[in-house]
């Protein structure tokens, strides 16, 4: 493999070129080169079946050649590659005229650039290159991505229309996620509390985190972007658990800053942003792993004291109300905060389900006993409504009772959320692979019961009745008596038919179904109305698939 410093400089020049076509060809070169240089040494199988490193002379010669080439890919080269990659994450069509963060004369990807695949493939290649470079030069990558994000934040803070300039920040979220993942959670992660590089990286990302936590954005697009940035730091939180509590507080702060009641369809972005923030708890629980466990039920007195000293608003107004809400939230852990928000009527059912799913992810890292406690806390309130005979007699004893159920909007979606959350609980519960206690003897293992075993007893009988009622409306004798909107809602796509009949791809095509999950019916009591054809179709499909 012939390579020298001059070649690297020449190919770097093409990578930095203003013209997209030249840059793209150089991207393929750098990606192939870094993929080869960063690959692990191959292993050979010894006579006893164990794996051993391939240490023969040819392999050692190749490794030495790789190290020599990597020496040409120095800090300056990696820094330049990252700079250009970060700028080119943005598609031309997303840039508003006169955007605050100028990109100069750089020719960005656009739909007019034909013959090179779509933008998604191009960006995935950029991100792969970013990940390789970050693994090779973690400190350089940490510095560059932090500087870039902070520059974008400062630009948005000085912009009169920050929501319009948000595309630049959104384009950097995936880059940040890949850098953090490569540095803290990748195959070449920098480990060891005493490592100088590790300590320096923690300081860099701690500074970036403080910048993000200090932002007081309340517009839904900005709130959504900020939540995504906080979760992009998930692998860092696993190595820096002291910051987890602050991130949890910030996510709840973002959630309560968004309006709970959304009556105007034009402001539905707030509804979507609330759901995204709640879903962020799931992603954080996965990425931060056991670092989240202490905050399931933990007093956060330092955060409370900081709020009192620095954030107390003037009496009256919405700011005072929000501050009071946060003060009630902070003394307890995540579970108590969820319960408080629900008691105060500040949490939609779909949002509670997402937070509950995050709790199940946390509990799975804590063991079977913790899972059982969490499941009891989450599911027992649902069982009180689910097991009542009144609704089963009213809606499930007669085939046409399902039509009456569809006209009772609030109860219809309540059942939907019960069924879908129970499915999530089944998927999220149990033991992780390799997490069974090796000290358990065979007798104890044979007596092991799944954490959901006791809950199946009350869930299954009404669920089977509900599914039978749903399937019965497809029979010709009942179908002819159904209202027009129910008949129209029963229409299935080819993908759905194929899935039910056991053929083809069971997953629906992307964008084939707009799944509303009933959240639009939870905005206020006055907003409850007759469900339309799309709502009934989504409800039928959701219950049928989850059941």
TrEMBL record:
**Organism whose genome encodes this protein:** Pistacia atlantica
Q: Could you identify this protein by its name? A: Uncharacterized protein
Q: Which domain of life is it from?
A: Eukaryota
